[in-house]
Amino acid sequence: xxxxxxxxxxxxxxxxxxxxxxxxxxxxxxxxxxxxxxxxxxxxxxxxxxxxxxxxxxxxxxxxxxxxxxxxxxxxxxxxxxxxxxxxxxxxxxxxxxxxxxxxxxxxxxxxxxxxxxxxxxxxxxxxxxxxxxxxxxxxxxxxxxxxxxxxxxxxxxxxxxxxxxxxxxxxxxxxxxxxxxxxxxxxxxxxxxxxxxxxxxxxxxxxxxxxxxxxxxxxxxxxxxxxxxxxxxxxxxxxxxxxxxxxxxxxxxxxxxxxxxxxxxxxxxxxxxxxxxxxxxxxxxxxxxxxxxxxxxxxxxxxxxxxxxxxxxxxxxxxxxxxxxxxxxxxxx
Length: 334
Fold this sequence. Notes:
By secondary structure, this protein is α/β, with parallel strands linked by helices. 45% of the residues lie in helices and 20% in strands. The chain contains twelve helices and eleven strands. The strands form two sheets. It has a six-stranded mixed beta sheet, sandwiched between helices. Strands 7-6-8-5-9 form a five-stranded mixed beta sheet, with helices on both faces. α6 links the parallel β6 and β7 (189-193). It is globular, with a radius of gyration of 26 Å.
């Protein structure tokens, strides 16, 4: 009997040990599965056509992250509706980390602030936010022959008579930015929307409009080549690449809104996957080649942690809502 009892006890202990070992292996396998992300290429959805400013930044980050992730990050261009089509696609994608969005102020701040009812997604509810990439100031540009040599001259003149300014679209970040400057500075300005910077610059060079307000990055080469002059920039501090250009804040107009880009994934993406993506985004932003490429365009990289990026976007939405005067809402049909 003693022997039988001992054998039974040993068998029970053996089964228990086997169960513990199996559970341990399962936990180890789960850890290995998480550690293996990504196991295949990742798609970065960009809401611009190939060659545009946002597309170039998306490809820059995709290339840099691909090197450290060990998997290709494929850029998929889905232009249209100011980036809202791309955002809508990612919001409905599988929340596994393999489809992510090049988020920007247009589709994750401006549109949610001014026309949320027309969007196929909600911010921030439909997204898991990975991190900020960069901030690019908006700039006030004039043709080189313009009699306006400084932003102060423009401000003083616009208090006396109506001046015209162009943007690349009604309701865009740049348009709203200049309308905010108009409101804060008590200026007389008439908005003239264009479908792109090319036609706007052509008309400005021809004298049909007084100035052009746009994200500075794509126009820095034309400034450096002497084709355009930039009189002032938005943002909290001067750009290192354009150190002689004052900020609007220095001129007494506290408008610091910028064009920003970041990364977002569909809501429900596992925290472990988001952590991997965020860590590799940080590694990309620490790459000197990435930094130099961003900074030569008068922009600045911003390595903002995941938990702070959400509040950053909510604050930006609040700023655009605050900027939505009755006149502006009438212009954009809201």
